[in-house]
């Protein structure tokens, strides 16, 4: 197993010790600094010629406790829209757009105008500290209609192509920053160990070695050596630290979720080898600028199972391991209201998380309360000012590195590249390289343009389904949600004789080959957990379509458009070919490129494919490993 070799090369970052308690609207071309005339620097922190550390120290020395706490606060843009003056009065350090939180005009200029308007409010504060704006660009600038939408991470893991992942994130960074946000909550470097998890598709795979290989995406976002000040790079976020893909099924206490936000039950050695390893690389090799702790908890086996601790409260892991032993010098951003899951009243939640090492708090609709509470905790001596200074210093460091003090407003010069042909060509290449050929009897694939092709299945002509969750809205949705090419359209671009029937009700007579496109509908996070209204089984409609088409047409090809493996064991004998198409995003033509042999099949499974749902969790290296398709499986065809 690759992970074993990787772990052997890593330093022992976790000692076998008990956990410690947590105590102790402007013009787009505005390019001049917002604080001083060119060449005149009223204070050292406004001098771009000084080292970042000196600028941070100078600015910290000028700030009041209220101003410092404001920098530690992130609100949802929707919470301040009715009264943007809150940005100024609360000294807010950051805003975000959650999934589906968009301007009224969901266009590049609409985004830039919105972010610049908020920025103007931040620059009206006494010290004119610019705002940091974050957004979930997890497979492209996916909140923006018209952006290039790439395959989700699990598909990218199937490509085994780190250079392609880097190019994808370079494009995502460029498209995102051209619309205002300078910070992305990506990439997810979780290691998915159970396909029943609703976030499976956000992981690059089940082997930490593969996840580490694909962390080139951090360099794509941030540039080599954290080149953050230009228009082509953004601050990246490695998430969700750590163990979120390794939680026990049934351990979640979040609403109806079954596994997401649950408990990772493990020992420190296994945790270091499986769950922590990608963060060592993210910090030490790529210098990731921010890290988002997970909603999940860890329950160490060494001290007896039954006392899990939320990651947002985990001083041992956040401070002792991540910041001190691994050497992370960026800042920690909490997940959406994550501290609300810590036991105790709100003051206890705030105090516990700050003292554990959290630096910025995503309190989307409770920013004023957070600031009042933290200030009271500081004044009472329950949160040391040194801890606040450390947190704010880390946040200011990122803002200086991004060049926000010199150029606070959106550089829109790359807006013309958003959704461009060249960007979509990279996404189409990613789709093609991600396709995994699981079965190919009788050389069913590649198809020939001369064949009469019968296409069935609801996912053949639904771009919303093929894009999945985190597309325009948090959960995503079916239908024509984004511009792009469906799989059906891609097939029709390659063959003149195509019949399409979503439910396979049209006559099949005269067809040479059937292509049935099955799979999942969009979901995100714990909403997609198995047991929360979801299953790994194919729908009854999908099973019926496969049965009818494969029973009536001599050659039958099945494509699975889904965020994780689905159970096809009993149907596999009926298929001549089976392709895992994942969630390809906006460029469905990439699927047809390999179906018709314009590109070869080269993808390999980044996760193990189970025989049944009951086999989960199943991962490479397990005892009695007997999957339907093993990790790394993938047949090849010639171009």
UniProtKB/TrEMBL annotation:
Task: Cite the Glycoside hydrolase family 3 N-terminal domain residue spans from the record.
Answer: 66-397
Q: Which UniProt keywords apply?
A: Glycosidase, Hydrolase, Signal
Q: Which residues form the Glycoside hydrolase family 3 C-terminal domain?
A: 436-636
Which GO molecular function, any one, fits this protein according to its record? beta-glucosidase activity
Give the reactions, separated by semicolons, that this protein catalyses. Answer: Hydrolysis of terminal, non-reducing beta-D-glucosyl residues with release of beta-D-glucose
Keyword Signal tagged: yes
Q: Which GO terms describe its biological process?
A: glucan catabolic process
- Please state the Enzyme Commission number of this protein: 3.2.1.21
Pfam families given in the database record = Glyco_hydro_3, Glyco_hydro_3_C
Question: Per its UniProt entry, what is the enzyme's top EC class, as one word?
Answer: hydrolase
Annotated Gene3D superfamilies:
Glycoside hydrolase family 3 C-terminal domain, Glycoside hydrolase, family 3, N-terminal domain
Does the entry feature the keyword Acetylation, yes or no? no
Q: Which domain of life is it from?
A: Bacteria
Q: What family does the Swiss-Prot or TrEMBL record give for this protein?
A: Belongs to the glycosyl hydrolase 3 family.
> Which protein is depicted?
beta-glucosidase
Organism of derivation? Actinomadura rubrisoli
């Amino acid at each position: 197993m690759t992970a074993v070799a990787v772990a052997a090369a890593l330093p022992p970052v976790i000692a076998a010790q008990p956990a410690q308690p947590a105590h102790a609207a402007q013009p787009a071309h505005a390019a001049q600094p917002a604080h001083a005339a060119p060449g005149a620097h009223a204070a050292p922190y406004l001098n771009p010629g000084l080292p970042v550390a000196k600028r941070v120290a100078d600015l910290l020395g000028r700030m009041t406790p209220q101003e410092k706490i404001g920098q530690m606060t992130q609100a949802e843009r929707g919470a301040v829209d009715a009264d943007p003056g809150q940005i100024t009065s609360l000294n807010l350090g950051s805003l975000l757009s959650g999934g589906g939180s968009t301007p009224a005009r969901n266009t590049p200029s609409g985004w830039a105008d919105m972010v610049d308007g908020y920025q103007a409010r931040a620059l009206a504060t006494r010290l004119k500290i610019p705002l940091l704006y974050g957004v979930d660009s997890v497979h492209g600038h996916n909140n923006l209609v018209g952006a290039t939408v790439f395959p989700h991470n699990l598909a990218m893991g199937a490509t085994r192509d780190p250079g392609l992942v880097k190019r994808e994130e370079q494009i995502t960074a460029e498209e995102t920053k051209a619309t205002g946000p300078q910070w992305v909550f990506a990439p997810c470097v979780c290691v998915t160990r159970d396909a029943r998890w609703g976030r499976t598709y956000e992981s690059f795979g089940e082997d930490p070695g593969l996840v580490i290989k694909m962390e080139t995406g951090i360099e794509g976002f941030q540039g080599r050596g954290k080149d953050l000040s230009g228009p082509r790079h953004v601050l990246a976020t490695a998430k969700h630290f750590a163990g979120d893909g390794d939680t026990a099924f049934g351990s979640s206490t979040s609403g109806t979720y079954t596994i997401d936000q649950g408990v990772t039950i493990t020992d420190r050695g296994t945790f270091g080898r499986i769950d922590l390893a990608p963060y060592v690389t993210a910090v030490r090799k790529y210098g990731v600028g921010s890290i988002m702790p997970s909603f999940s908890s860890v329950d160490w086996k060494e001290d007896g199972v039954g006392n899990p601790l939320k990651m947002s409260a985990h001083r041992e892991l956040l401070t002792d391991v991540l910041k001190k032993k691994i050497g992370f010098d960026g800042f920690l951003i909490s997940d959406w209201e994550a501290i609300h899951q810590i036991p105790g009243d709100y003051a206890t939640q705030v105090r516990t998380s700050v003292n554990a090492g959290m630096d910025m708090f995503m309190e989307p609709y409770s920013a004023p309360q957070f600031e009042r509470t933290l200030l009271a905790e500081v004044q009472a001596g329950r949160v040391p000012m040194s801890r606040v200074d450390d947190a704010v210093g880390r946040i200011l460091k990122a803002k200086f590195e991004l060049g926000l003090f010199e150029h606070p407003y959106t550089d829109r010069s790359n807006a013309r590249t958003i959704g461009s042909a060249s960007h979509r060509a990279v996404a189409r290449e990613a789709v093609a390289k991600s396709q995994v050929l699981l079965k190919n009897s009788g050389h069913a694939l590649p198809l020939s343009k001369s064949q009469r092709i019968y296409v069935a299945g609801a996912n053949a002509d639904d771009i919303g389904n093929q894009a999945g969750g985190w597309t325009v809205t948090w959960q995503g949705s079916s239908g024509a949600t984004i511009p792009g090419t469906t799989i059906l359209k891609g097939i029709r671009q390659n063959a003149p004789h195509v019949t399409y029937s979503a439910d396979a009700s049209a006559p099949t007579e005269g067809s040479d080959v059937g292509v049935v496109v099955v799979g999942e509908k969009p979901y995100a996070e714990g909403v997609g957990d198995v047991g929360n209204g979801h299953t790994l089984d194919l729908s009854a409609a999908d099973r019926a379509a496969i049965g009818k088409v494969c029973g009536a047409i001599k050659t039958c090809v099945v494509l699975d458009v889904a965020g994780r493996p689905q159970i096809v064991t009993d149907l596999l004998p009926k298929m001549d070919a089976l392709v895992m198409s994942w969630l390809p995003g906006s460029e469905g033509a990439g699927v047809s490129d390999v179906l018709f042999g314009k590109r070869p099949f080269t993808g390999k499974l980044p996760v193990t494919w189970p025989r049944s749902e009951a086999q989960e969790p199943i991962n490479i290296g397990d005892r009695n490993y007997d999957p339907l398709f093993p990790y790394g499986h993938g047949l090849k065809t010639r171009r």
